[in-house]
Design brief:
Elements: H1 2-40, H2 43-55, H3 57-72, H4 82-96, H5 111-119
Helix pairs in contact: 1-3, 2-3, 2-4
Length: about 120
């Protein structure tokens, strides 16, 4: 039983180290993204994206990923201003809008009501 406890200790330590390394890697990636976005966006566009991130974090992540991809592919001619960011956000808004169909059914006849009516005859 002592051998099981002694092997569990290093396994937990390795797991904790792996989790710490993963956390550090994610933080480094996030910092790299922030640096790249700062280079890509004008201050006004960066502020607007920060506002979007507060309200709709998923949308902000989509836009950030798109901007980074466009930057890496060389499809951005220069810094993205607020107007260009608005256009990109509008494209995502239109894509996210879905048609909603609601079906309402009328209850013309209720089986209980029919039985009650029959008894009156």
């Amino acid at each position: 039983m002592d051998s099981q406890q002694s092997t569990a200790g290093p396994a937990r330590a390795n797991n904790a180290e792996a989790m710490q390394k993963e956390k550090q890697r994610r933080e480094e990636q996030a910092e790299q993204m922030r640096v790249m976005l700062k280079a890509i966006l004008t201050p006004e566009a960066s502020e607007r994206l920060a506002n979007v991130r507060v309200v709709k974090p998923e949308r902000a992540q989509q836009v950030e990923a798109t901007l980074l991809q466009m930057y890496q592919q060389g499809r951005l001619p220069g810094p993205v201003n607020e107007a260009a960011l608005k256009q990109l956000l509008d494209q995502y808004s239109q894509a996210a809008t879905q048609t909603k169909v609601t079906i309402s059914r009328r209850n013309n006849f209720d089986s209980d009501e029919e039985e009650d009516d029959d008894e009156d005859w």
